């Protein structure tokens, strides 16, 4: 069956499109409401950024076991519902003028936990919807393309909504998108098999996930490289909105325009990963993708008229997004082809722990660095740090660990 005729996958795809569009709006609107409405400084923004990633550090391994023991389709449905309800409390509190940074902290952490469970179940659920393994690269590329399309429209829409209707309204859009996505996913009626009954205790189950992860050196290399990159990337995120608003004096609409330009990179990755992988293989193309992660360096170097600043930062984010999504698609396909379905949730939780587990420290480090050195010098150092993924991935490429099974002679 072609992907276009696969009804459950099609509904899943549309639901992903809708919820991600709303998420892109909130990813811009939440830090903007913290800076513009609640007057958050570098330290507060560092804490907010850290709390978004903290669930990956404290919950990833537990949720990996949890995902492998539940019906994944049902779990995805309730994760969407939970995120919609939690995010909806932010515009409600703002309407009654009782919104505080403490509430943003709590909501950010709780939504991050549900998003983590969704992400782990989502990766493990795709092989259920697409049983033909030859279609997995195309399916993962389709999902990445969907994410990228929403990344193009979402930030621009978010910046416009914040500019015209305030940040709480923009966040309310995200809340509604999660609820509608849950209904759409349920309407697709995709297969949702019961997991194989497992009586293994928690720690042995976790060890099985670690063993499956360690047994794939290509997956380990991409994860280690992306984990080192993510530490610095979370630090950049902690400072970026502050830098754009207070030093570059950009409006919410201009920040949204930068995000739109940057999100064209993931969009292109979703389109080209399958043909590029088939034509050139995944080995050295992954090294090129890792080099593109240094696009963050263009942010503190941007200067001149607003249009030039927007174009410069947008180009950096374009290159960064292209590299990140290419690596994610390659790694997801390697994961789904090489690890048995019953271990995908746990292996995915190890990956999430390595990558996003660095996020809380990265966010706090970024806030501290910005408060100590200033926003621009801090962003220069952090931009250099995002290139730390290159040695990991280049070494794996030289050892032949990044090729797909059908590329090996």
From TrEMBL:
Domain Major facilitator superfamily (MFS) profile residue range list: 219-409
Gene3D superfamilies: MFS general substrate transporter like domains (1.20.1250.20)
Compartments where found: Cell membrane
InterPro entries to which the protein is assigned, alphabetical: MFS_dom (IPR020846), MFS_trans_sf (IPR036259), TM_effector (IPR010290)
Superkingdom field: Bacteria
CDD domains: MFS_MefA_like
Membrane topology of the entry: Multi-pass membrane protein
Membrane-spanning residues: 45-68, 75-96, 102-126, 252-272, 284-303, 309-330, 350-373, 379-398
UniProt keyword list: Cell membrane, Membrane, Transmembrane, Transmembrane helix, Transport
Pfam family, one: MFS_3
Protein name per UniProt: MFS transporter
Taxonomic path: Bacteria, Bacillati, Actinomycetota, Actinomycetes, Propionibacteriales
């Amino acid at each position: 069956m072609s992907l276009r005729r696969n009804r459950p996958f099609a509904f899943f795809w549309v639901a992903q499109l809708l919820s991600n569009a709303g998420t892109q709006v909130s990813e811009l609107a939440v830090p903007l409401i913290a800076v513009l409405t609640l007057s958050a400084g570098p330290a507060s923004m560092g804490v907010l950024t850290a709390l978004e990633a903290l669930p990956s550090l404290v919950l990833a391994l537990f949720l990996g076991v949890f995902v492998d023991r539940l019906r994944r389709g049902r779990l995805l449905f309730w994760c969407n519902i939970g995120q919609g309800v939690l995010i909806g409390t932010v515009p409600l509190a703002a309407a009654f003028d009782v919104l505080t940074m403490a509430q943003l902290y709590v909501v950010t952490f709780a939504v991050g936990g549900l998003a983590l469970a969704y992400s782990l179940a989502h990766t493990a659920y795709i092989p259920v919807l697409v049983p033909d393994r030859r279609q997995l690269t195309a399916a993962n590329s389709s999902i990445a393309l969907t994410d990228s399309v929403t990344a193009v429209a979402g930030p621009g829409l978010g910046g416009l909504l914040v500019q015209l209707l305030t940040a709480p309204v923009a966040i309310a859009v995200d809340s509604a998108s999660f609820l509608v996505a849950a209904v759409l996913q349920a309407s697709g009626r995709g297969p949702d098999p019961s997991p194989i009954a497992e009586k293994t205790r928690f720690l042995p189950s976790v060890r099985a996930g670690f063993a499956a992860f360690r047994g794939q050196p290509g997956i380990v290399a991409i994860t280690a490289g992306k984990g080192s990159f993510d530490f610095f990337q979370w630090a950049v995120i902690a400072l970026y909105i502050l830098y754009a608003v207070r030093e570059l004096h950009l409006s919410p609409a201009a920040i949204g325009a930068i995000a739109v330009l940057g999100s064209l990179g993931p969009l292109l990755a979703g389109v080209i990963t399958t043909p590029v992988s088939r034509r050139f293989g995944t080995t050295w193309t992954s090294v090129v993708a890792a080099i593109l992660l240094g696009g963050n360096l263009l942010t503190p170097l941007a200067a001149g008229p607003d249009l030039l600043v927007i174009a410069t930062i947008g180009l950096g984010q374009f290159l960064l997004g292209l590299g990140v999504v290419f690596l994610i698609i390659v790694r997801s396909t390697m994961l789904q082809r090489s690890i048995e379905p019953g271990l995908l949730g746990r292996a995915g939780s190890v990956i999430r722990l390595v990558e996003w587990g660095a996020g809380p420290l990265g966010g706090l480090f970024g806030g501290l660095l910005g408060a100590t050195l200033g926003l621009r010098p801090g962003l220069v150092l952090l931009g250099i740090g995002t290139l730390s993924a290159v040695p990991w991935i280049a070494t794996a490429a030289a050892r032949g660990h990044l090729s797909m099974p059908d590329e090996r002679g």
